[in-house]
Amino acid sequence: MKTVDINTLSNNLRLSVQNIYKKIHDKTIPFYKINGIIRFDEREVVNYLKTGSVVNDKVPYMSTSDVATELGISMQTLYAWIRNEQIPMFKLGYKVVISRDDFEDWIKTKQVLPSHRK
């Protein structure tokens, strides 16, 4: 999963930022709210808009740089989150890694799911 901000999503999907905010408000588009910042998994959004379901890739462990890239945050911010135990992680020797399953569980606690209004 690689998260993008609302402007990137708007440009890539050719939807206005206002239209995306409306979809967020109506809960008709999947998004994540991480420490107050709205982020999107672009592939998940595109798949959801096409099919109404979410795609999920499995990679056993993620490096800190992978996590920072996917969340669109700096390494400094990520290490602050790790220090404050705001994100799950563990050490393999001297290397800090995050289990993909733990990361996905953690990020789901930050996700606001679309409602299925009829």
Task: Explain what the structure shows.
Helix 4 crosses helix 5. The chain has 118 residues and is an alpha+beta fold. It has helices at residues 6-13, 17-25, 42-51, 64-71, 75-83, 100-108; strands spanning 3-4, 31-34, 37-41, 61-63, 90-92, 95-99, 111-112.
- Specify the structural class: alpha+beta
Number of helices: 6
Which range best describes the helical content: under 10%, 10-25%, 25-40%, 40-55%, 55-70% or over 70%? 40-55%
User: What value does the Rg take, in angstroms?
Assistant: 15 Å
Through-space gap between termini: 29 Å
How many strand segments? Answer: 7
How many domains? The number is 1
Main sheet specs: 4 strands, antiparallel
Widest β-sheet, arrangement of strands: 1-3-2-7
**Succession of helices and strands:** EHHEEHEHHEEHE
Mean pLDDT across the residues is 79
